[in-house]
């Protein structure tokens, strides 16, 4: 693995860690994020819609240009919502 790849992975981990800290300090973000994901899950541009609404309703700010960490978070969020519906 190159130095650039290692640095990128470190940046992604740091970004995700900061987000997890926000969630622990404001647990209502989880509920809001899942509600938003449910609403936009089937949209062709779900990541953009989820990111925009989450950014407008919480202190989680996802920029228009999604980073690798942003994409990982959005994909995880959609998977969690899909898993909920699969249980029923």
TrEMBL record:
<protein>
    <submittedName>
        <fullName>Uncharacterized protein</fullName>
    </submittedName>
</protein>
